[in-house]
Design brief:
Layout (H helix, E strand, L loop, with lengths): L8 E7 L8 E7 L6 E10 L2 H8 L14 E9 L11 E4 L9 H4 L26 E3 L2 E3 L11 E5 L3 E4 L5 H4 L5 H13 L6 E5 L3 H13 L3 E5 L5 H5 L6 E3 L8 H8 L6 E4 L4 H9 L7 E4 L14 H4 L3 E4 L7 H13 L16 E3 H4 L1
Parallel strand pairs: 10-11, 10-13, 11-12, 13-14, 14-15
Antiparallel strand pairs: 1-2, 2-6, 3-4, 3-8, 3-16, 4-5, 5-9, 6-7
């Protein structure tokens, strides 16, 4: 790949020309990386619901034409000026948020909300010069959350790349660049359930299953899955869920059902749906005095969270999380290593998206 360094690369990409319209396979030109940027060859990419949400352009600023994709794994092709910790041939996971390592958030042990590289869904260009690195016949094609992995080559800010073990199977660990880390970290890094505790997980999609796996790793004894789709229950058993509740089966609010099941409420809850009613239920179902609820899903822009103040005054704690509180460059390589070293509990998380991870040749 060294022969292409410094040159424009022509490759295939799945381009979204309009909101909700089918993606079109196009030949795009990918410019060389500028200062603090890296051009990578994408080998595997996954489809996350966030891609679909912004492709549909529901409730947010539409930016088109655009190349979506943000859950992927690839190899560094070339690096721009100032990049010292990555080199051609390195295995990397591009991440939709970043870690500049210089801002107050990056220097804090409590935050991963990088001031410079925090996710910006409206920005379709690179930070350095406000320009796109993609084009077709001179027309710019916009980026998505700084990654745009539905392309055989893409350009990413160095702070949004996690360098990982070159022996790691990219077709599996690519899912760590978004949903799996978000759910896993929401439990392990934010909810922090004590051993033997009870945990309710709202939503048993990929993120929810990863959250459940985190509860199992932490040693929770009761892991209750809450979902309106009973077909998800069987798969969820692989990830530690040992009780299931379908809100459609009850005439009363699901938080009341959970409180009755657990003698006053669960010790921890993790909400992974983005549905505002589920968020409220997740908070109101935790036990007073010590219960902690963690919100993971992203609600509609007009959604309003409403609960009685006494639910807070009775010492329930409500927390939010972003990418599972993981710092991409500092933390994600270690999560990959735990999988590579067969650490207990990390052997199952990569089964979650079977059928949703694609070779680029299949996608394109």
């Amino acid at each position: 790949m060294a022969s292409t360094a410094g040159k424009v690369i022509k490759c295939r990409a799945a381009v979204a020309w309009e909101a909700g319209k089918p993606l079109v396979i196009e030949e795009v030109e990918v410019a060389p990386p500028q200062a603090m940027e890296v051009r990578i060859k994408i080998l595997f990419t996954s489809l996350c619901h966030t891609d679909v949400y912004f492709w549909e352009a529901k409730g947010q600023k539409p930016v088109f034409p655009r190349i979506f994709g943000h859950e992927a794994g690839g190899i560094v092709e070339s690096v721009g000026e100032g990049v010292t910790d990555l080199a051609p041939g390195d295995y990397v996971l591009p991440v939709f948020t970043g870690e500049c390592k210089d801002c107050a958030h990056c220097k804090s042990e409590e935050s991963n909300m990088c001031t410079l590289l925090r996710i910006n869904t409206d920005r379709g260009v690179m930070i350095r010069d406000g320009q796109s690195r993609f084009s077709i016949h001179g027309k710019p094609i916009y980026h998505f959350v700084g990654t745009s992995t539905f392309s055989e080559f893409t350009v990413v800010h160095v702070g949004c790349l996690a360098k990982i073990n070159p022996d790691a199977p990219l077709d599996k660990v690519c899912v760590l660049s978004c949903g799996i880390s978000t759910g896993l970290g929401a439990t392990l890094n934010v909810a922090k359930p004590p051993k033997g505790s009870s945990v309710a997980v709202f939503g048993l999609g990929a993120v929810g299953l990863a959250a459940a796996e985190g509860a199992r790793i932490a040693g929770a004894s009761r892991i209750i899955g809450v979902d309106v789709n009973p077909r998800r229950f069987l798969e969820a058993k692989k990830f530690g869920v040992n009780e299931f509740v379908n809100p459609k089966d009850y005439q009363k609010p699901i938080q009341e059902v959970l409180a009755e099941m657990t003698d006053g409420g669960v010790d921890r809850s993790i909400e992974c749906t983005g549905n505002i009613d589920a968020m409220i239920s997740a908070f109101e179902c935790v036990h007073d005095g010590w219960g902690v609820a963690v919100l993971v899903g992203v609600p509609h822009k007009d959604a309003v969270f409403k609960t009685h103040p006494m639910n807070v005054l009775n010492e329930r704690t409500l927390k939010g999380t972003f990418f599972g509180n993981y710092k991409p460059r500092s933390d994600i390589p270690a999560v990959v290593e735990k999988y590579m070293n067969k650490v207990s509990g990390y052997l199952y998380i990569f089964e979650i998206k079977v059928g949703q991870t694609f070779f680029m040749d299949v996608l394109l």
